[in-house]
């Protein structure tokens, strides 16, 4: 019985020593460092809104355009939009018109960061600003007047701002040609420089000021210009 116990103890010690020697002889594998994102910009995109162009050439109440641009830093994109906006609308007993310019600045986050073509599904945020003028002309009637009187009131120099949450797609079509859309939820509009007799009605870039929030949609075409070769997309294994 004692020999059997000593035998098993000796065998256990020999196995432990063997495993220790094998572990020392086995080469240790070095962990590869995680790939780092390259945040240096390599290209810029310029585009325009096809919906605004369609309303300008196909309608009578709207005239305007919008220029869009973005620059990528890995999966983050700085964006800027500049636009012009003018409307001529019929209202009860009169007409309303406005004209002005606007811009937006913001950032988008691309959630398709591992796509070699760098197609985009994004969420973003914008700050918008507008400068515009507007005029309302209407017919006023009174028991003291034999005929209606034409009254004109205006806001000659109005400025305003708002914020937006955006989402959308950008898809590579061919070489530098891209297309996509941007959906916007606009909120927190504010204006200043108002005439006390007329509240601002339609703010270029935003829309109807009394609507909070207000929705927007752009269908855009872009051309991408590279000033250096874009770094490869890094995919963790």
Describe it.
By secondary structure, the protein is mainly beta. It has a domain at 43-87 and 100-132 and 160-226. Helix content is 14%, strand content 56%. It contains 2 helices and 10 strands, in the order H-E-H-E-E-E-E-E-E-E-E-E. It has helices spanning 2-25, 50-58, and strands at 43-49, 62-73, 76-91, 94-110, 120-140, 149-174, 177-192, 202-203, 207-208, 214-226. The strands form 2 sheets. It has an 8-stranded antiparallel beta barrel with strand order 1-2-3-4-5-6-7-10. Strand 8 (202-203) and strand 9 form a beta hairpin. The chain is elongated, with a radius of gyration of 32 Å.
Walk me through the topology.
Blueprint: H1 2-25, E1 43-49, H2 50-58, E2 62-73, E3 76-91, E4 94-110, E5 120-140, E6 149-174, E7 177-192, E8 202-203, E9 207-208, E10 214-226
Antiparallel strand pairs: 1-2, 1-10, 2-3, 3-4, 4-5, 5-6, 6-7, 7-10, 8-9
